[in-house]
Structure formats: structure tokens, C-alpha cells
Amino acid sequence: MLIQEKTKKKSYNQDEWKRGYESQLNEYNYWVEDIEGEIPHQLQGTFFRNGPGLFEINGTPVKHPFDGDGMVCAITFKNGRVHFKNRYVETEGYLQEKKANKLLYRGVFGTQKPGGWLNNLFDFNFKKIANTNIIYWGGKLLALWEAAEPYSLDPGNLNTLGKDYLDGILNPGDAFGAHPWIDPSCQLDGGQPCLVNFSIQPGLSSKITLFEMNPQGKLLRRYSYCTPGFCFIHDFAITPNYCIFFQNHVSYNPFPFIFGLKGAGECVQFNADKPTRIILIPRTPPHKEVKVFEVSAGFVFHHINAFEIDDQVCLDSICYRSIPQVNPDLSYKEVVFEDLDPGQLWRFTLNLKDQTVNQEMFESQCCEFPAIHPDKVGRSYRYLFIGAAHDQTGNAPLQALLKLDLQTGERQFYSFAPHGYAGEPIFIPKPNATAEDEGWVLMLTYDGSRHRSDVMVFDGQTINNGPIARIHLKHHIPYGLHGSWTPECFI
């Protein structure tokens, strides 16, 4: 069986895939003319997307793509037309390195300054790169990176306005996570939407701080919880009553980082043989009745959704048997996908009465970057859209869009293989829609045969039929991370 896995034909070409990690040195601003199919006229708004765009500075490469400077794209849909623009987030580090034309900072995920360990010894000033997510909230466009303050951008031209302390909610140096959730109808605020986000202060005991903000960007609630052990948490989940954190059991040895030998992220070790803590922090003041469960589980970066049914809380997550780390002796472009564990979908059902956990895998195909209907955040939901590998078994790059009906088990699937590589899908409900999957799915893809990127528009109810429109950009956009949608147009 192992021989068959190693020798079967791959759905992708590694050399083509690598080119998706070439830096995009240009900043564009144009109306897209090369479109196959038809853009729905009801689709009006802006798809913002963030991710690393610069992978070397004057010939010195970053060691991990997550250390690349953030590049924001704005893809605007207006009256059946599409406009594209992209700009780099001009963080302090980005501007300093651009002026010096050399790498000046260490990166969290392993990038070191030239000059060996002596030039990195005792240097804890890593670059704050605003490269993970982008969200429009409270009249502000915020580029997010979980270890620092957000950067505010002008939504019209994407010019960087500077660090944003959210009208005094944050202090200089405070972190603001890269995975906020929007509660579509907060029961504490009369059914108004609210944004929920968090920050982590890791250590021997780690402090989780939560922020809840109204649609005008004003603070509604701030509360904290300290948990024993080092926290390496990228995402969380919410329900009407809880914020839910998956505390993977990790150990952290800071000395290789201190002595200039490794990046801080490379010093994290996942302990797969020890239990994971699932922490439920009440959203209702005084936030004191925290519930903690222990479960044997894989490593989790992203959650899909959580919801409550009577005395149970269900949490759907993407789990890995081990952290998908790149071999430190190889370039990340030389990754051997078959040697890494795939992300798979699991449901954890937490019984609040007897403190038990039931866990079940409900999708084994390699997948990442989930999307659901925004009105279903924290609520029971039926449909899930997610990037997936082409083949149903093994690990590989994401090359497809997978839709799951969690009620019937029906799967819809569309693959861009062998030359296409998929990013994170975004689900946009149609105006006056009545069905949960009645909407559009947007997905930015990379075409390795043309070294160009496309924006795909799917009808959410007929994924099997393929895109209803293919928007061909003039250039490539490097593989990115997360994005968001707003019905606002800034053209």
C-alpha cells in the first residue's frame, strides 16, 4: 500500500507549485477585462485578501513564507465589472528594509538576519508584518497579525495609515488576533452584530484576553483568563454563550531563539501524546464560570464553527496528527507533501453536565481554510465550503473546492488540478436568500501553467458545475492566508 502511495501519479507539478511563492514586486490598479462567464449584477462589494507577498530582500530569502511581508488585495465587484488593486502594508519593518535594501529583522518562523548566530544573538526585535488577515469593521480597514497591533489602511487606495490602537482599546505593543469572528446577533446587545477577537500573552502561564466590539468599533466588553502552560493558539470559536479555545499541548524551549540559532516559532514542540485542553470562557459578565475539558486530539490551526444544543457544545475543527512543520534543513519550496499529515475534519461534542467529550472525524480528505454562511457563526449550520486536495487520500497542495452538506452527507467537489492551486473560499449570501447555501463562493486560485492568478466565482448551490465566472488577473498573486467580504465598494 505504501509503495502504491509513493508511486501513484501526483495531481500537481512541484515546479509549477513552487512558482506560486515568487514575490510579487508590482502594485497594480486596473479594471479586469479578461473574464470568462458573467459576473452576477447582484454581487456588489469588495473581497479583501491578505497574505505574504515578498519572499526575499536583495537576494536574501525568508526561511518560511509566513515571514513574508503582508500584501493586501482589493477585488471590487460593481455593476457586473471587477476592479483589482494590491498594495504592501507599509509596516515600520517593511519601510526600513526597503530603504536599506537588505534584511534587517528576524522572523518569527525562522528567518534570520545575515551574519549567522552572532548577528542574531539576543535580538528579540522580530518584524511585525501584518500579513495574515484583513477585515473592514467600524469604518476601518485593518490588516491583522496575531503578535502585534493591527495596521489601518485606506480602503479606497490601500495606503497604509499606520498602527491602529482601536481608539484606545489597545496600548502600544498589545496584540490583536488575526482570526476575529463576527457574532451576527449578539444576545447581550439586543441582537446587534459584534466583533469578537482575542490576544495571547504566552508563558509558563498564558493570559487570554478577549475583546467584543460593536459595529462602530467601540469596546463593549474586555475580559481575561489565565491558563497553565504555554499557549500556541492561532484561532478560536464562538457561540452565543462561549468563546472556545483549543490549547494544544506544546512545549517551548526559548534558548535556540535567544542564542540566535532558530526562529521563535521553530522552538515550539507539539506533544501529541499529551491531552489537549478545550477552554470555554463565558461571554456573559462576570465571565467567571470557565469550563475546561481534556481530550486526545491532533494539532489545530483553524476551527470551522461551534454551536450549542441543549447541554452540549459542538466544535468543528481541522486537525493534524502532528504540526505540519517544514524540514529545517530544506527550503519550504522543497516540502515533501507525502511526508506530512493532512488536515482532516473532526467534531468535538462537549457535554457540559458530565464534562465528557465525544470526538468523531467527519471528513478524511486533506483540506484547509473553511467558510460558512456568516449568519451561521456560532449557530447550528448545514453547509461548509473548504479548500481541498485533488485526491481523497494523502496530503497534497489544495487544488479544489469542496462543499459538504452536514445534514445529508452530500459532497460537491470541483478540482483545478493539475495546474490550479486553491486558496481560502469566501461565502457571500445572495440578497433576500432563503436557503443557507444560496449565495456565491469566491476563491483566489493560482494557475501554475500560466503563472497568473484567477478569481473564481461559484454558485454556492452548484459547486459541481464549476465556476460561473473566471476572472483572469494580469499577473500572479502569491499563495495567501485569509480574507473577508464587505458589501461596501470603494471605487
UniProtKB/TrEMBL annotation:
A GO biological process held by the record: carotene catabolic process
Record carries keyword Metal-binding: yes
Domain of life (superkingdom): Bacteria
InterPro entries: Carotenoid_Oase (IPR004294)
CC cofactor: Fe(2+)
Annotated keywords: Iron, Metal-binding, Oxidoreductase
Binding of Fe cation, residues: H179, H234, H302, H482
GO terms of molecular function: carotenoid dioxygenase activity; metal ion binding
Cofactor binding annotation: Binds 1 Fe(2+) ion per subunit.
Family to which this protein belongs: Belongs to the carotenoid oxygenase family.
Protein name from the UniProt record: Carotenoid oxygenase
Organism in which the protein naturally occurs: Gloeothece citriformis (strain PCC 7424)
